[in-house]
Specification:
Helix content is 22%, strand content 38%. It is α+β, with helices and mostly antiparallel strands and 173 residues long. The protein binds zinc ion. Zinc ion binds next to loops.
């Protein structure tokens, strides 16, 4: 995670009250994460930060377009996403994640690093099932790919190990 320092908010100098920030996560952002299910994307992150005397309150409003892999034909496609989230930051002796919504920052901190949060929120915005949208009531999937997958599946024995194939079999049968 060493190179990730794109999305930070230096909060020390801020006055108490509300402040607005805007960030963008683009292809290069998602490329930094090996585990990213988003292969490409252009996502806008709007943050309302409310600085209180002893803690910070962050409201995230995320929206944009991302490219993911279709569960059915395994080809990439672009989809719109939207997500909202809240993060509370309080201060302590050392930095640690108290819960999904509460981050404790070491007293010596002067900025918040948001890359990991933005990454997680974008993934939370993805639907459980990702399938090409229909075009004029016809599947938007790559039918040739599905044919290949079906042929492959037909030749496989039941002890197939890749869960993706099992999932596909379930869909085809
Ligand atoms: Zn598809």
């Amino acid at each position: 995670m060493g190179g990730l320092r794109q999305h930070t908010i230096p909060f020390r100098g801020l006055k108490e009250g509300k402040h607005e920030f805007e960030f963008v996560a683009d292809n290069s952002f998602f490329e930094q994460f090996d585990s990213s299910e988003v292969k490409k994307g252009l996502v806008k992150i709007r943050i309302d930060l409310i600085k209180h005397t002893t803690f910070l309150e962050l409201h995230f409003d995320i929206g944009g377009r991302v490219t993911v892999i279709c569960d059915r034909c395994l080809e990439p496609f672009a989809m719109g996403i939207k997500h909202q989230a809240e993060l509370y930051i309080r201060f302590g002796e050392k930095t640690y994640e108290q819960s999904e919504e509460v981050l404790v920052l070491a007293d010596s901190s002067f900025e918040i690093q948001l890359d990991q949060y933005i990454f997680e929120y974008v993934h939370l915005a993805l639907p459980y099932k990702r399938i090409h949208p229909e075009i004029n009531k016809h599947s938007g999937c790559n039918e040739e790919m599905i044919k290949k997958i079906e042929d492959h599946t037909a030749h496989e024995e039941t002890e197939e190990t890749d869960p993706r194939w099992d999932k596909l079999k379930g869909l085809i049968n």
